[in-house]
């Protein structure tokens, strides 16, 4: 079961071979750091690993905002990979640079191509993993940095209980993982010039929960100046799993699992700070899986009236809350088969799958499961169980044939969780905006396997996470093992194309350059996007995509508003 659900959680990469190795010391404003110089076919690379950007969040600093790291005088050894933040482990053992796990994990890695003295644009990667799993050192950025001649930074941030546990009051406010991301960005802003980086040209990018994160950060005006461009990959703040403000009762599960008494918030936090970090692993997974059926993540960002003072949203009408977001160059996109990652949960509950009962999707999905089981879950999660919404969604996505219904179900999930939110954010960013640039992509490179998990034969798209192996370094054998496809010359071309698009955007806000397919900016009228496949090309949204997006962005909100008004009228009577 863990294997079947991790396709929606994790992406990973490997460390490439190098020809020779020397050392280099850089004197930063925080202190001196020793890194590694390696020679590659594309040029020289300077790498600095395991750089601390905050005090260790342990002891009394557990369940608190991160505190800035104090400057150091002795040379820090930046030649060894950082540990992973505390999390459930086991599935990464064969592919991680190391399998060290620690609560003392607030480190970052810096990849500098060719020179430490020539000012370069900077890309900061925020990893995904459902706010439960993941680590910065899985994403080897050697080729990305050298291809685009940009500095790439990968970071750790606190996850699961450590990153998002809250008592729903001022004692433990949550969002520690987001605060960690912000502190990492502050460190980069203050120190990256010492590596040859341009502190006035920083792009944040991330996928899945990393996409949620960069989307959230781009809507917080207090982050102005920390970054200048955003790439949100398969994850937008509007998505149902990006936030948890439902006050789900996971705290009782945590206390029971680690044997802390339920009392007042002060006593709870005091007890939880004394629990060994490894004791939280099982409960973190339990909370994650427990939320899947209701389409939420229990340990996730929330409105805390401190970092986030109100629900974050992209609205069709423009107001000052979007000023910071619209001041940033913006790129977002998703895969055309995002929904396959959740298709298992349509006919079989997550608890059943945890106990080994996996659905057989080889013959498709039934209309009954889609219309009478899954769609009501969507209505409950996002539309107050509105029966009219369920009726409209069933009509739009139903099919009599189980194979066709399976394909429609994949579209339904993808539209609900990824596509409609991306389009709404693109509308909000591009409308009457001549100051900054807006771009959309869709990944359509098909595969029958994703991250070790076999996909049904009828599935024809690109699953969740398909973009990441084309941006970071993969060995050929692992590409074939995980994606069930050989890294062909066409795949290598796609990889080069995507890395150049991404790094061009990071440098100028425009992904275009000579030798690349022309990528037009997004407009509300045509909804242009770059179709990233073995033969990439720009396209405008067809009638089916426009119909489905109109359903989610215009029609369903009108249904909900009419229902709300009728409720108000009844109350007044």
From TrEMBL:
Give the matching PANTHER family: NEUROLIGIN
Which residue range or ranges hold the Carboxylesterase type B domain?
23-539
Which InterPro entries does the entry link to? AB_hydrolase_fold (IPR029058), CarbesteraseB (IPR002018), Carboxylesterase_B_AS (IPR019826), Carboxylesterase_B_CS (IPR019819), Neuroligin/BSAL (IPR051093)
List the PROSITE patterns: CARBOXYLESTERASE_B_1, CARBOXYLESTERASE_B_2
* Entry EC number(s): 3.1.1.-
Which UniProt keywords are listed? Hydrolase, Signal
Return the SUPFAM superfamilies for the record: alpha/beta-Hydrolases
Please provide an example of a Pfam family that matches this protein in its UniProt record: COesterase
Signal peptide, first to last residue: 1-20
Listed name of the protein: Carboxylic ester hydrolase
* Species the sequence originates in: Tegillarca granosa
Q: Which family does it belong to?
A: Belongs to the type-B carboxylesterase/lipase family.
């Amino acid at each position: 079961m863990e294997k079947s659900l991790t396709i929606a959680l994790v992406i990973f990469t490997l460390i490439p071979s190098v020809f020779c190795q020397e050392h280099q010391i850089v004197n930063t404003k925080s202190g001196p750091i020793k890194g590694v110089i390696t020679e590659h076919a594309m040029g020289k690379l300077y790498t600095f690993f395991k750089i601390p950007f905050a005090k260790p969040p342990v002891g009394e600093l557990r369940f608190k905002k991160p505190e800035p790291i104090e400057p150091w005088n002795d040379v820090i050894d930046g030649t060894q990979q950082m540990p992973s933040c505390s999390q459930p482990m086991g599935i990464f053992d064969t592919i991680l640079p190391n399998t060290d796990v620690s609560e003392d994990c607030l480190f970052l890695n810096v990849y500098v191509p060719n020179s430490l003295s020539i000012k370069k644009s900077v890309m900061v990667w925020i990893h995904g993993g459902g706010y439960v799993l993941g680590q910065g050192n899985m994403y080897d950025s050697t080729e990305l940095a050298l291809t685009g001649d940009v500095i790439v930074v990968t970071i750790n941030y606190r996850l699961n209980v450590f990153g998002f546990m809250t008592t729903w009051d001022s004692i433990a406010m949550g969002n520690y993982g987001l605060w960690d991301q912000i502190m990492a960005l502050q460190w980069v802003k203050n120190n990256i010039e010492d590596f040859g980086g341009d502190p006035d040209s920083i792009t944040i990018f991330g996928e899945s929960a990393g996409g949620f994160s960069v989307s959230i950060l781009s809507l917080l005006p207090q982050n102005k100046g920390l970054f200048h461009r955003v790439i949100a990959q398969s994850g937008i703040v509007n998505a149902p799993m990006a936030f948890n403000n439902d006050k789900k009762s996971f705290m009782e599960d945590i206390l029971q699992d680690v044997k802390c008494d339920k009392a007042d918030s002060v006593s709870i936090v005091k007890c939880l700070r004394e629990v060994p970090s490894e004791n939280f692993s099982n409960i973190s997974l339990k909370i994650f899986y427990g939320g899947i059926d209701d389409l939420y993540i229990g340990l996730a960002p929330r409105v805390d009236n401190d970092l986030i003072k109100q629900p974050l949203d992209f609205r069709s009408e423009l107001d000052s809350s979007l000023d910071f977001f619209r001041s940033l160059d913006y790129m977002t996109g998703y895969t055309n088969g995002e929904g396959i990652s959740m298709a298992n949960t349509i006919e079989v509950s997550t608890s059943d799958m945890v106990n080994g009962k996996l659905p057989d999707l080889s013959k498709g999905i039934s209309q009954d499961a889609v219309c009478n089981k899954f769609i009501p879950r969507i209505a409950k999660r996002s539309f107050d169980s509105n029966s009219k919404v369920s009726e409209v969604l069933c009509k739009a996505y139903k099919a009599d044939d189980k194979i066709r219904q399976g394909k429609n179900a994949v579209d339904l999930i993808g539209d609900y969780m990824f596509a409609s939110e991306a389009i709404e954010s693109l509308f909000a960013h591009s409308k009457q905006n001549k100051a900054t640039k807006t771009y959309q992509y869709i990944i359509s490179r098909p595969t029958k396997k994703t991250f070790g998990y076999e996909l049904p034969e009828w599935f024809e798209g690109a699953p969740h996470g398909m973009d990441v192996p084309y941006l970071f370094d993969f060995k050929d054998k692992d590409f074939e093992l995980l994606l069930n496809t050989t890294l062909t010359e066409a795949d290598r071309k796609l990889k080069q194309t995507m890395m150049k698009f991404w790094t061009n955007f990071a440098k100028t806000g425009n992904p275009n350059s000579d030798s690349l397919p022309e990528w037009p900016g997004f407009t509300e009228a045509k909804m242009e996007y770059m179709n990233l496949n073995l033969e990439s090309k720009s396209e405008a949204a067809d009638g089916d995509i426009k119909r489905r997006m109109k359903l989610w962005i215009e029609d369903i909100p009108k249904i909900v508003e009419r229902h709300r008004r009728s409720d108000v009228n009844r109350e007044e009577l």
